[in-house]
Amino acid sequence: DEKKRLSYQEKFENAQHSVSKKLLETALAKESNLIASADVTTTAELLALAEKVGPHIIALKTHIDIISDFDYEKTIVPLKALAQKHRFLLMEDRKFADIGNTQELQFTSGVFKITDWADFVTSQVIGGYESLDCFKNVGVVAIVGMSSKGTLTTSAYREEALKVAASHPNVIGGVSQNQLPDEMLLFTPGVNLADSGDGKGQQYNTPEHVFKTLHTDFIIVGRGIYKSENPEEAAFIYKNEGWEAYQKSL
Ligand code: 5FU
After folding, report:
1. Where does the Orotidine 5'-phosphate decarboxylase domain start and stop, copy by copy (predicted)?
2. Nearest CA to ligand 1 atom 4
3. Which helix (H) or strand (E) holds 187?
4. Is the ipTM reported for this complex over the cut 0.90?
5. Measured from the CA of 202, which atom of ligand 1 is nearest?
6. Which of 29, 136, 176, 181 is geometrically suited to a Cys-Cys bond with 145, CB 3.0 to 4.6 A?
């Protein structure tokens, strides 16, 4: 028998971190568990995508360092306005992977100043417990397991990574292709309705599969949405598929 998953409402009531609360509250209000990955390379594309998919998502995931014309005023200021308008959070998928002092500098300095705008960030936990201390004002999603073929996040690695992640107060959840403890939010990338891979190591599952077998909380969809001919409609489809799959998994 499969163990029952917790509902968003139950997770909301148990949540300790303000960002977890906000994510779960948004999911319940919008009836969405969809995070769109905005892997586009210009400010114009990023803002256009955010405007189109905004109504259907709970968060927009960025790789802000791939934006070739990045400018804080022209990129971040309007992006924050769209996040407010459509009620979604900003998730910077930076995957920090260094010592605490360097991560702190990467988080607060440079041109991106991630600390000023991201609601939550991804981080490897390879630097150990204290490397996560600098992410005080945001939620951290720990990279526990990766979706790509041949990843080194074996079960032994995941077990150790989970110990660090689960014990750190800044951590709200993890990225993984395996189940996580109930107290952590599970974010699952590698979701696509049409493809099983991208020829570059990415491996895809359907929303139905990840909710049923992993009890995921939030699906992350990149090319399934932004490469689609109609990203707005694609986001709507993934939102509905994700919500239905969540309800079936209860
Ligand atoms: F941690 C991970 C992971 O294990 N797999 C991922 O695919 C992160 N990702 C990110 O999700 C990746 O960097 C992309 O930004 C996104 C998946 O995009 P896709 O176009 O849906 O494959």
Report:
1. 33-238
2. 146
3. strand 185-188
4. yes
5. 22
6. 176
pLDDT given for residue 4 in this prediction: 86
Percent of the chain exceeding pLDDT 70 equals 99
93: enclosing H helix or E strand: strand 89-96
Instruction: Give residue 223 CA to ligand 1 midpoint distance, Å.
Output: 9
Q: Judge if pTM exceeds 0.90.
A: yes
Residue type, 214: L
Q: What is the pLDDT of residues 14-55, one digit of tens each?
A: 999 999 999 999 999 999 999 999 999 999 999 999 999 999
- Please tell me the distance from the alpha carbon of residue 124 to that of residue 100, in angstroms, as a whole number: 11
What is the gyration radius of the CA atoms in the chain, in angstroms?
Answer: 17
The long-range contacts involving 190-193, CB below 8 angstroms and separated by at least 24 positions, are 190/147, 190/220, 191/219, 191/220, 191/221, 191/224, 191/238, 192/221, 192/223, 192/224, 193/224, 193/237, 193/238, 193/241
Atom of ligand 1 nearest to the CA of 122: 1
Cα 195 from Cα 110, distance rounded (Å): 37
Residues paired with residue 59 on neighbouring β-strands, in sequence order: 35, 89
Alpha carbon 145 to its chain's center: 13
User: Under DSSP, is residue 173 helix (H, G, I), strand (E, B) or coil?
Assistant: strand
